[in-house]
Amino acid sequence: MSETVILVIEDEADIRELVEYNLKREGYQVISARSGLDGLELAEQKMPTLVLLDLMLPDVDGLTVCRRLKSTPATQKIPVVMLTAKTEEADIVSGLEIGADDYITKPFSPRVLIARLRAVLRRDTGDSSEAQEVIYAGEIRIDSGRHETTVSGKRIELTSTEFRLLYLLAGRPGWVFSRDQIVDAVRGDDTIVTDRTVDVHIAGLRKKLGPKGKQIETVRGVGYRFREE
How far apart are the C-alpha atoms of 94 and 44, rounded to whole Å? Predict the structure, then answer.
């Protein structure tokens, strides 16, 4: 726990101090920034374990910060959790589409905040009960131990959530998973998501898999399944 460093990018002093207090009380190391540009600089310098990012910032907005973090090789694998007062689904979807791992809306409970961050950290470190193995699905290779996915020998970059989603579906080809089952298996019981959130991750995964993305089939009224070639 002592080696877990969380970067908080939040311009509102009261919220920033509340978050810092609760994270430190749980044993996390905390660094903070009051603006998007300062946050980007700290992320590159300190390489935190996780970034808690407010979307409404005074200089560079949070979506831009997230996009830059996820497009920079040095920081693209750092989990990003959005913190926002916006409740519109479009804003949440936009963040998830560019690589954010989860979101928390204001006002929030400190206990919920800690639980959600722990869930993301567990997913990122691979701390789960699932066996570490390699799954072969035609030309798709999914290495759980290395957290690596290749298609026709070419490595593709997936977010933590996309990787777990692919691992779940490809691990049981032909099996239909409901959205609720996907939420429980991929994002954790202590994380609240919507059906639309699952759809966004499916769409992003299909796009990254290219032509092989067609193997992820929609079963209307039920959920999704992975079709063997």
Answer: 23
Q: 178 has which bridge partners?
A: 223
Using CA atoms, how far residue 140 sits from 102, 160, 163, 211, in Å, is 26, 17, 12, 11
Strand pairing category for 80-84 and 102-105: parallel
Q: How far apart are CA 11 and CA 72, in angstroms?
A: 23
The 10s digit of each residue's pLDDT in 132-191 is 578 888 889 998 888 899 999 899 999 888 888 999 898 888 888 888 778 877 765 444
141-148's contacts with Cβ under 8 Å and 24+ in sequence apart are 142/166, 142/167, 142/170
**CATH number, domain containing residue 153:** 1.10.10.10
Establish how many alpha carbons lie within 13 A of residue 15's alpha carbon, considering only the half-sphere containing its beta carbon: 22
Rounded to whole angstroms, how far apart are CA atoms 217 and 123? Answer: 24
Assign residue 78 the CATH number of its domain: 3.40.50.2300
